[in-house]
Give the backbone structure.
Amino acid sequence: MIDFLYRLLLGWVEVTISGRHPEEIISQLALSGQRLWAVRKTAAGYRFVAPLTCIPVLRSVLRGKHYRIRFGNRGGLPFKWREFASRPFLGVGAATALGIILFVTSRIWILDVPGSALTPVAKFQLIRAAQSAGIHVGTPRNRINLSQSRLVMHRSLPQYAFIGLSVHGVLLTIYVVPLVAKPAKSLPRKVIASHGGTITSVLVYMGDPEVSPGEVVRKGQTLISGAVSAPVPIQPEGNSRPLTDAVKTPAKGEVFADVPYHVQVVQPYRFEQWYPSGRTFTQTFIRVGENSPILVQGYGKIPFRFYRAQKFVQVWRWQDVNLPVETVKIVYNEIQRRHVALTRKKALLRAMEFASHRIQVMVGGANIVRKRQAIHWAKHRVSVQLNWVVNQNIAMPVISE
């Protein structure tokens, strides 16, 4: 780097020496304190790069000796200054380019949040917090106080144990360590019923059972309590009723019950249905930072009266860095309304399909005990009612605070 600045400021020229012993001339130049670069032997002689201050010394060394020198490429500020003097607009252009480079490289243009564990929403919140802390796209680097900005971001985002900021050129990187909450030292104080039903079995691991098989319970009723009662080993004399002592324990266990589920679906014979026609209309926007989006495709009014819209957002990336630019695409799908007429058989099949899907979602993977269905026909519709009884674990622990 020092040699480069030396050549740039003082100027340089490429020299080729040919003769009987050119190595002697190069040695004398080096011993006199001259800087020489890229010394190599070629078919035309020895070639090297020397500063302009070396040329008078070289001429004095060669005086009276039979050597031939040739000058080749040259450069540095002394030569550029002559070009600027003869062509002033070239200097203005160079100064303008230098000013643009200094302006661009002295500011922050990219805010990046690395890490695959963070969701896009979390990354967006971090970038917004950085902007609230005074770090925007285009902010000069010398105006950024990383320590102060980090404290401001941490106050607005307490869910992170650590927030770090680092600047490399035009890139500001935000590093975070999520805060992991310590689990509370609490235990279930009782177990209640998540659904109503008829108890089939009670398995108590800790606590005292409050129900027994064959009993009908309602939702929210206590099934297992966190207190165990037992008679006192030594009873006082003269007591008509034995004394008992209660010991508090966590409540844990499984209680299975037959739980009823009911679903009813009414299907008309004639109804209206919306379906896509296949025609679409697309609008594309470009959004930079927090500015309003700019429409670049899809000018004019939406050509459909009825439609469903889908939005797609794609963030611009450069070398795995998220840029503050995103493409927003909105696709409008035309939908049309049509009248559908069903026969009694098709209406019944449609109602059964809807009802079965709904009750299966409600039941999940529980063991089915009984199934019943009821069909009611009317003049303009059919009604299907499904009644299922499933055996499932209804124990739901209640955590004490």
